[in-house]
Amino acid sequence: MALFLAHCGACEETGVLQLIPAVQVQPLVLDFGEVPLTVRVQGTVTIRSVGEVMLTIERVHLADDRFFSLIGSPATQLLPSLSDVAQIAATPTELGLQETVLYIETDDPGAPRIAVPVRLTGVPTPPCDDGNACTEDIFDAETNSCLHNFADGTACFPADKCVTEAVCSQGVCLGTTKVCDDQSPCTQDYCRQTDGECVYLVSPLACDDNNPCTADSCGVSGCQHAALLNGEPCDDGDECSRNDACFSGACVGNAASEGSACDDHNSCTIGETCQSGVCSGPSIVEPAAEGQELFTYNLTEWDAGAFLHRREVSLSDNGVFYGLDHLRLPNNEGLSHVVFAMHQCGSEVYQFSYRPPDAHVLVSYVRRAMQLNTDDRIRMVVGVRQRFEDGFQPQTTTYLLDRQGQVMLSGIQTVGGETGRSLLPDGSHIYGLVWPLTDGAPTPESPAMSNLVVVREDNSGHVLWRHERTSGDWAEFLGVAGPRVLFWASNRFGALDFNTGALVWSQETDAITKEMALSTPLNLGVARTSSQLIGVEILSGQQIFTFPEGFRPDYIPRTDPVIAPDGRILVLMERRDSSGSLAVALEWVELDSRGTVLNTKVLDYVFPDWSATRHEDHDDPYPTVADDGVAYVGYGDHFWALDPGGDVRWTLTSTVPNAFTGSVPLLREDGVLLINRQSRKIIGVKTNGGQMSQTGWASFRHDGRRTNFTP
Length: 711
Known about the structure:
Elements: E1 23-26, E2 30-36, E3 41-49, E4 55-62, E5 68-72, E6 77-78, E7 83-90, E8 96-106, E9 113-123, E10 135-140, E11 145-150, E12 163-169, E13 172-177, E14 187-191, E15 198-202, E16 214-219, E17 222-227, E18 241-247, E19 250-255, E20 273-275, E21 278-280, E22 293-298, E23 307-315, E24 321-328, E25 335-343, E26 347-354, E27 363-372, E28 378-386, E29 394-401, E30 407-414, E31 417-423, E32 429-436, E33 450-457, E34 463-471, E35 476-481, E36 484-489, E37 492-497, E38 503-508, E39 517-519, E40 524-528, E41 533-537, E42 543-547, E43 555-557, E44 562-563, E45 569-576, E46 583-591, E47 597-603, H1 616-619, E48 624-625, E49 631-635, E50 638-642, E51 648-653, E52 666-667, E53 672-677, E54 681-686, H2 694-698
Parallel strand pairs: 2-9
Antiparallel strand pairs: 1-3, 3-7, 4-6, 4-8, 5-7, 8-9, 10-11, 12-13, 14-15, 16-17, 18-19, 20-21, 22-54, 23-24, 24-25, 25-26, 27-28, 28-29, 29-30, 31-32, 32-33, 33-34, 35-36, 36-37, 37-38, 39-40, 40-41, 41-42, 43-45, 44-45, 45-46, 46-47, 48-49, 49-50, 50-51, 52-53, 53-54
C-alpha cells in the first residue's frame, strides 16, 4: 500500500497537517503451487509500516483453517520503516485447488482491512519406485522427496542365473555362484548365465599334456596320452639341444657344444651361450641402477600429429606391452592406427595397422579404448560422433585381434557410440553406449537427443540386462567398483547393480571428466574436473570432498588422481599467478580418503612454452603407483619417481619440452617401468622392484581387463 497523508479535513485547527499510519503488504497473493498430499509447506506474508508514525496491527486471521494455519503472527505495533511477517503453513489432504484468505486489519485509515488470497493445489505423492528390488522406496513428506533405503536381506533375482540364493546387500543383488563340474578332465565346464544350466563341452585341448611326443585323447576312463613312434621329430624348446626327436614318449636332443652361441628369446639378456645345456646370458636389468634407462622401443616414424593415449595401453600378465598408436594422415585425410605388442626389453611380438571409420571423415567426438582379454586377445573399440553437418550420428567400430595380431572380427558393430567397457572375472562384459534417439543433423529447433545405454553381456555375447537413461550429446561409463557399475549422464553420477542393472543411486554434479579412480576398500571414487578433484562414496553416491575447496584459478589439477594401496590420493597440481594465466610451480599433493591434505612437495620444474606443443602434452599426463607406495609421473620434459611424502627418488629429463606425454606409465613384474616418451618411443626404466598390486591396478581405468571387482 502507498503512504497515505491526511487531506485538508484532517488538518488541526492550527492548519498543521496531521500524520497517519500506513501499511504495505507483500505478496498480494500467496500461492504454494502444487503440493503433494500430506506434505507440509510454509510461506510468509510481510507487513511493513510505511507511514511516518507507529502502525498498529489490530488483527491477523484466516478465513478458513481446514488446510491452512497461521503459525506465526506479527507484532501488534511497528515503527516506521520496520516490518514483520505472518507465517502460514498448509498440508493438503485432498486433491485439487484449495483456497482461503488471510485478513490483515490495521489502523491505516486508507486500508483498514487487507485481504491476501492464499491457495495451493493438492496433487498425488510422486511415484518413488526406482525399479530396484533391493531398495525400499518411500516418499518422505517432511522433505518432499523420495528415499531409497537399502532393503538388506530381501530375496532377489539376478539377471545372471548362475547366481543362486541371492539376497539384497547394500542395494545390490548378491548370491553364490553356481559351480559346474562333471568330474571329467575331458570337458570344459561352465554355467550358462542366461538360464543357469551347466554346460560340459568336450574340448580337444582339455587333455593336452604339453608333450610334443604324445598323442592326446579322451576316453571313457579320462585323458589318455599315447607315445609317438621313436624317431618322430619334435622340439624340446631347448636352444642348447640339436636334432630333437621322440624317444619313449619324451622329446630329447643332442647337447650343443659348451659355450656355443644361442638365443634364449629374451631381449633382456645379451651374449647368450650354452652352459651345461642351458641357454643363458647376462641380464641388462639386474645390474642396472634404479632410474637407469634400459632399452628403447621405437614407434612408427611420423612427421607430426602422432600420439599414444592413456586408454590405449595395457600390460598382460606375462609382461607383454600393448599400445594403440595414432598417426595423423596428411591433407586432413584422417588417421591411421597401429596396434603394437612389445615383449620383454623391446623385442616385437607383432604390429597391426588399420584405418578406423573416424580415419575417413572428421568427427565431433571420439572415444577409443583397447581392452586386453584374459587370453591376450585385444578388443579395440572406436566410438565416434559425426560432425553436425554429417548427421551427428554416434557409431561404434570393434576390432578383435588374436594373440598373434591376426584379425578375428572387424567392422561397424553398433549404431551408437561406445564410451567405456569392463571385463568381469566371469568373462561377461559391461559397457556403455551413447544411443541416438533422433536422426539427421541437429538444429536449434530440433536438437540431437540421446540416451545412455549400459549393457551386461555374458561370455557368449547374450544380453543379461540393459539399463537406459536420458543423456546429452555424450555420457560416460566410469567402470565397475565392487558390485556397483558407475556412470555419468545429464549432470548426474550414478551407480547400477551389476547383477540386475537396477539403479542403486544417482546424485547431481556440476561436471565430470572421462575417468574415475576407484577403490572398493575405501568406498571411494575420485574424478577430476577442469579445476577440482571430486570424491564420491561408491556405495551411497554422497559427495565426500572437493579439492581444492571452491573455484581456484590459481591452483588446478594437472593429472587425473590415482589411489595408492595405502589409501592416499595422489595428484599433480599446478600453481598459477593471481591472474590465473601464468604457471609458476608444480606441486605433488597427497590427500587422505576424505580429501584432507597430508603432504605437498614443490617439484623442481621450469615451465616451457606450451604454445609450441600439443595440448595432450600438458593436459593429459597420468601417474601410477606401486604396492610399496612409490609413485611415477611425467610432465613436460621431466619424469619423477616419488616416495610417500613426496621426496624424489630419481628424475629423468629430456631436451624436448613435450617428452613425457599422455599415456600411463606401466610397471612390469620384473620391476621395469614402461614410459611413453615424445609419443614415439617406449623406454624401459629400472625401478626399486615394487609391484603393481591389485589395489593399484584398480585405479587404472584405461585397462579394461583389470577391473576393481570385489563383490
